[in-house]
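Justification of computing resources. Each target in the renewal requires a structure prediction run like the one illustrated here; the chain below, 244 residues long, is used simply to show the kind of job we budget for.
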Amino acid sequence: MTIAMTTGYFSYHDGDNELEGYLATPRDMSAQQPPRPIVLVVHAWGGQDEFARAKAHLLADLGYLGFAIDVYGKGKRGKSPEESYELMNPWMENRAALGTRLLAAVTAAGTIEGGDATRLGAIGFCFGGLCALDLARNNAPGLRAVAAFHALFTPPALETQLPIKSKILALHGYDDPMCKPDAMIAFADEMSRAHADWQVHAYGATGHAFTNPEAHDHASGFFYREVIAERALASMSRFFAEVL
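Resulting C-alpha cells:
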C-alpha cells in the first residue's frame, strides 16, 4: 500500500497492532518533483499529540515530509503524568520491542508517495528523543540524521553495538534533572565507541522539556525556554540541511 501525498492521519501496523501516523507535506508538493527526505517525529511520553504534529508541519515548512509516528498504538494517549508513565514504562523496559515498533514506522515511511526512503531523518523529544537515538543505534534503513531534544540517554542493553551510520545531534539542557552532566558524558562516550559522527549542544541554565511551552515546573527542573527552543530548532534545521 502506498500512502498518498496528503496532510492528515493514516494507519500503519506493527504486526497486528494498528498505529496512527500523521503526515505533513510541503505546500509546493507535486508529483513532478524529485522525492523528498522524510523526517520522523517521535512523541514524548504522553503519546502522539498536537506538539508532535506541529513539529511535522514545521518540517514540512522546511521542505521535508514530516511524519509524526505513533509508538503506543491508535487511541493510546496519556491524559495525566501517571497514565503517560504507564504507557511509556513497558517500552523503556523492553527496548528490543521498542526497536521493532520504531522500525515499523520506518517501513511505513517507505510507502509514502513522494518521499525518499533512502534519506530519512528523525527527531524526538524526551522519551521520543531516546526513541530517535534508538533508531540510530539500530541503524534503521535509510536513516541519515537524528536530532534528539532533551532526550533520555539511557542506552539499550545490546550485546554488540555496531558502528552507528547516522549522524547524531543531541540538544540538551545542562541542568536537565533527568539526564545530568555525567549521563551526557556517558552518552558522548557511547557514541564515540560506536564511531558515530555526533554532536551535543548543551544549553546553560536550561532544564528538561525546554521546547515545550506547557512546561512550567521550575522547581523540578521542567520548564520552557523560548530562546533555547529557537536556538535548538535552528541547529536542527542547519543539521538537516547539511545531512539530508
